[in-house]
Known about the structure:
Elements: E1 15-17, E2 25-31, E3 45-60, E4 63-68, E5 72-76, E6 81-97
Antiparallel strand pairs: 1-2, 2-6, 3-4, 3-5, 3-6
Amino acid sequence: MTTIHTLDELDGQPHANVFPDREPKTVRLSLDADESVPAHSHPGRDIVLYLVEGEIELQLGDRTHDLTAGEIARFEGEQEISPRAVEPSVALIVLAPRSE
Length: 100
């Protein structure tokens, strides 16, 4: 079965699950300007964050990466992650289980 939606149609703030209860875990993250997600980690996962619109400061461990719309960050979930929106932002994040 095929389903088609826009990112804006997905329910949930700031996180909306694209494929609830399915792998890889895929979420839309929407943040207002100066809004952030507290530092956390996702052990055992590889993460891809695609910034659809806006600008964020992505804190990964002890480093900060500035991302603008259209950029992609790929990283391991063991490190602490905390995105902060510089301006209203929307990202699509895929959290894939790491294959051994």
